[in-house]
Amino acid sequence: MKFIIVFVALFALAVAAPPSKSEEAVVLRLESDVGPESFKYGWETSDGQSADAEGQLKNIGSEDEAISVKGSYRFVGDDGVTYEVTYIADENGFQPQGAHLPVAPEA
Hints:
Larval cuticle protein 65Ag1-like, 1 helix, 14% helix, 107 residues, mainly beta, 6-stranded antiparallel β-sheet
C-alpha cells in the first residue's frame, strides 16, 4: 500500500511539473509572402511565442526611399507572464508599444 501511495505521489509530481527548458518548441504556424516591394510573415510555436509583420517600400526610386513595417510579437517570460509588443518601424525609428513597457512623458 505504501508503494502505491509513493508511486501515485511521484506520478502526480511528474505530470504537474512544467516542461523543461530543453524541450524543443514545435512550429504551429509559419506563413510568408515576400514580393519585390512588400513582405508579410507570421509564425507561432508551441511554447507560446509568435510574431507577425508586414512591410512596404515607400517613396520607391527617390532619395527618401524607406521601408515601413508594422507588426507584433509575443513571448512567455521567465516569470510565466505572456508579453506582447506591437510596433511600427519606419523613417521615424522603432516605435514599440506594450502594457509592460514604460511610456515616455509628453514633450
